Amino acid sequence: MSLDGSVSGSTVSAAPSGFDLAALDAALSGTRFAGKLRLFPTIPSTNTHAMKEAESGAPEGMVYFADEQTAGRGRGAHAWASPPGSGLYVSALLRPRMAPADALWFSLAAGLAVHDAVKQVTSLEADLRWPNDLLLGHKGRSRKFCGILTELNAEATHVRHLVIGIGINVHQQRFPDELHNFATSLYIETGRDWPRQELLIALLQSLDVEATALTSSPTTAQANILARLEQVSSWVRGKHVYVEDQDGFEGVTEGLDPRGFLQIRTAGGLRTVFSGGVREQKTINR
Asked: Which residues are in the BPL/LPL catalytic domain (predicted)?
């Protein structure tokens, strides 16, 4: 146990949360994350901690994950409920050589990594809602089970460090009334528990593949991401949506532009979404 309350995979093989850190390290051998896992029984926010560690010089590939978060964060001012033992709350630190304008690619790639990991472990096909939400459920009744928060520290021309925070609802059997219509979990969708350790391994392996592709051959990787999103997301084309930011507007999604930004056909013409929550028109108040 370190002074900050974390558990290091290099010194402890098992933790009270049920994660086997030695097994995790072995499974991640050959990835940028091997030997760099830090598990917290409880922490306010893995992303906040990862950003502070990055400022202090923590190396590429550090992974901070927790059994519980007491102040988990989503996009904007949204909180992310992180009760103990119920989900995956993980933040990965990367130091890609890239311009700040290209950071969106890592958020999109992280969504695809989650999609692939969940499919590998559970056989479920998640739907990606641009840019950082993953949904499960029947058509017309999809609810969010995963959120991704990407944060970065950058100069004008290059990124110093980037943290990808991923929260996945795994074991939750119910949600508060105010979230019931919007949130779900792997348990709710399948009626069974899934091993968080197996899911974490699949997630980090997939994320490593995505990050390697984006840094070694960015043009090819970006084209691949655009093509895959067309296949696995019902949101990038033909969806009637409302955009909460940019003064609020509605229209029908018309694919992603070459930079990965969402395009929407409105009554006034084609508009590009650079930021903001995208919701189905029938749920514009959410």
From this structure: 22-215
Q: 17 pLDDT band (50/70/90 cuts)?
A: low
Task: Give the pLDDT of residue 70.
Answer: 87
Q: What are the φ/ψ torsions at residue 5 (nearest 5 degrees)? A: 95, 0
Mean pLDDT, residues 188-208: 96
For residues 199 and 88, give the distance between their C-alpha atoms in angstroms, rounded to a whole number.
8
CB-based contacts of 116: which residues, under 8 Å, 6+ apart? Answer: 202, 206
pLDDT band at 74 (very low <50, low <70, confident <90, very high): low
Q: Which two tokens stand for residue 187?
A: 């348990």
Mean confidence (pLDDT) of the chain: 88
DSSP class per residue in 139-203: TT--EEEEEEEEEEEE-SSSEEEEEEEEEEE-S-----TTTTTTB--HHHHHSS---HHHHHHHH
Both tokens of residue 170?
A: 């795994």
Helix H or strand E encompassing 9: none
pLDDT band at 255 (very low <50, low <70, confident <90, very high): very high
User: What is the model's pLDDT at position 220?
Assistant: 97
- As a whole number of angstroms, the distance between CA 101 and CA 122 comes to 34
Q: Are 215 and 109 in contact (CB under 8 A)?
A: no
Give ∠ CA 132-134-138 in degrees, rounded to 5.
Answer: 150
Judge whether 279 and 244 are in contact, CB under 8 Å: yes
Per-residue buried b or exposed e for 132-141, using 16+ beta carbons within 10 Å of the residue's own CB: bbbbbbeeee
Let me know: does 39 contact 19? Beta carbons within 8 Å. yes
Q: In angstroms, rounded to a whole number, what is the distance separating the alpha carbons of residues 180 and 276? A: 22
CB 165 within 8 Å of CB 46: yes
- The dihedral built from the CA positions of residue 48, 53, 56 and 57, taken in this order, carries a sign that is negative
